[in-house]
Amino acid sequence: MRLRQAPGWPAVLTDGPVTLRPYRRSDAMAWSEVRCANRHWLAPWESSLGGDWDQLNSPATFRWVYRDQRRSARAGESMPFAVCLYAEGQERLVGHINVGNIVRRAFCSGYIGYWVDRRAAGRGVIPTALALVVDHAFGSGELHRVEVNIRPENGPSRRVVEKLGFREEAYHPRYMHIDGAWRDHIGYAMTSEEVAAEGGLLARWHRIRARTP
User: Fold this and answer.
1) Is the CATH code 3.30.230.70 the one for domain 13-211?
2) What is the pTM of this model?
3) Nearest to 95 by CA among 181, 164, 202, 20
4) Could you report the per-residue pLDDT of 87-99, keeping only the tens digit for each?
5) What is the DSSP secondary structure assignment for residue 199, as one 8-state letter?
């Protein structure tokens, strides 16, 4: 008997030069290079796993990450995507975005996490990726609500969700073990009804960018 494909995954989502796609085994070297090059940019905001950063982000570790992501996605628990930029006919892996901890039935909600290569930051990549993945989650992903939790000190990440119109919903003291300690987080959320009348979050983002000098 063939198992039913999980809602919303696999999929490829594109807007301009930004593409979200499932990871491939062949991404190991590119993923490792980006992660290792961005140690000081990413480590303050990521969960405390312990161990050496380069080892935790090696091509060998990616193979484990890849298998775990595929298992979770096939079970309908997550929708993981590599964030890629296209320029001059070349694809470059520049980040990651995931809808995880998906709960269905009466809740139909998930948590979104993301990171981006510092060399691609400030170019609208992550706001575009977030808008794409939210619209996908509310559509093919069959979710009603998504949540993003961010440390108060992480100004750039907070600006991403705030300019897209995520609602600040809660303050979570000592919410997650990040960078060696239990850190507070601000909870932002959005439901499908909040963007439906605008044609989706990507349409909202395009209008925001058009208004920005």
Assistant:
1) no
2) 0.94
3) 20
4) 878 999 999 999 9
5) T
